Structure of Dihydrolipoamide dehydrogenase:
Amino acid sequence: MEHFDVAVLGMGPGGEVAAGRLLKAGKKVAVIERELIGGECAYWACVPSKTLLRPGEARTAVERAAGVSGAELSWFEASKYRDYMIRHLDDKTQIAGYSRDGATVIKGEASVTAPGHIRVGDRELTAEKIIIATGSEPIIPDLEGIDQITAWTNRETYTATTLPKSAVIIGGSAVGTETSTFLASFGVKVILIHRGDRLLEREEPRVGELAFTYLSETGINIRLGVSATKAHRSGDQSVIELDDGTQVSADVIIFATGRTPRTQNLGFELAGVILGEHGQVQVDEHCRAAENVWAVGDVTGIMPFTHVAKYQGRIVADAILGGDRKAFYQGIPRVVFTDPEIAAAGLTQAQADQQGIKTKVIEIDLAKSISRPWTYEENPRGHLGLLMDTERNVLVGAWAIAPLAGEWIHQASLAIRAHIPIDTLLDQVAQYPSYNEAYLAALEKLRPASH
Ligand SMILES: Cc1cc2nc3c(=O)[nH]c(=O)nc-3n(C[C@H](O)[C@H](O)[C@H](O)COP(=O)(O)OP(=O)(O)OC[C@H]3O[C@@H](n4cnc5c(N)ncnc54)[C@H](O)[C@@H]3O)c2cc1C
Ligand SMILES: NC(=O)c1ccc[n+]([C@@H]2O[C@H](COP(=O)([O-])OP(=O)(O)OC[C@H]3O[C@@H](n4cnc5c(N)ncnc54)[C@H](O)[C@@H]3O)[C@@H](O)[C@H]2O)c1
């Protein structure tokens, strides 16, 4: 039986980062992947979605900047570039790369049969240490009649060769709002159905409100507070019946209704792993799941983002190589790539209240506060909200909806993670004119009374 120092189960961003570091350190590593090395992110999620959101964003930039006009979108060109970006759904370069770096690459579905024992098809192997990095899969509600309709997830959406004329998107969180933005930018008639009373419910209520305004302005028809109950087909249209008695129809129905950790029937429990109530692998602060078993990425159910999967990959590689680094999730950015971008870091006010943190909040309208929005757009858009812990005088939360917010939220992310005192932040000198100047404008309003 083949024996390895480490076996990595699943080669999405989390598995890739851990494997890469362990190979560099000279470990004998087996990387096992049932589909494509790169995972959901590289082929069906982050990469194609951000690639396909970019043309619409560039057109908006042209439309809103003074003195430039004439941007047109081409689905033919955009989808050709998307195909390049998703490597034409081919990972032979990745397989060759990992093999060259000394890994044993095994294609197939891995399951654990006993501590340190793994089966992939007919192949049995043992490993001193196991890293579970099997990601997540979409949740599709079990609607009556769902088999009659054209139902898509992110996979069909982001690998489409032709676009539908119309789409109903169910779920108003990150996938639902980004997908609506992308499809609407290419002229698809979009209805976005969301059962909550505001979009992006994990963020501040104000974020959901502003997102509703901006998305509606692009022609997306947003229906809040309604749930899909049944589905049926009517000619070439897929129909969704809603719990308020109305129905909506389109060429395709896209489910953006969340994801669940991929842990079922993979034998992880046989290695001592404990699964949580949502099927997630329970891990400690070193991402350790059991004796000689670690887990990274969506499968841990912690913060289902690629940058978190990669961070956990670094933590686990460090632990296996004898380090003692602990994962720390405070202040990690959460960006939704709508137009404009929606970015947040740290706590919402409700979360701070729950933790008994005394807070002060401030929201500023960027156009009234700094110059950059005016040099950037003729009709500037943008807001920044900050949440300050008034006892410790540090930031604990931030959100922004504005052009490039996904870039400049990192200043708040660092301030929250490093507990940078407000006084130090007030002494920060941001480039003029930049969106970063918004922090000074907002912080001066938050400044404690003693100053
Ligand atoms: C539409 C969409 C857009 C997104 N955009 C962003 C974004 O812009 N930024 C961001 O940070 N996050 C984004 N995400 C989230 C991001 O895709 C995930 O957080 C990320 O892919 C998680 O990485 P992972 O390594 O945990 O898992 P995955 O990327 O899911 O990879 C897991 C891998 O494990 C393999 N696998 C599973 N089971 C087995 C098994 N038994 N044996 C062998 N292999 C197995 C799978 O085939 C897969 O390749 C998006 C998600 C979606 C759906
Ligand atoms: N830019 C990014 O970083 C990015 C982009 C896309 C996705 N992601 C990640 O991928 C994961 C999946 O995203 P998501 O938006 O699918 O999931 P999600 O869990 O964030 O949201 C799913 C939404 O669907 C709604 N919903 C569920 N069932 C429903 C039903 N039957 N009828 C109506 N609404 C229903 C829920 O109320 C929820 O608001 C998330 O964790 C997200 O963070 C990240």
Notes: Residues 146-258 form a domain with the FAD/NAD(P)-binding domain fold (CATH 3.50.50.60).
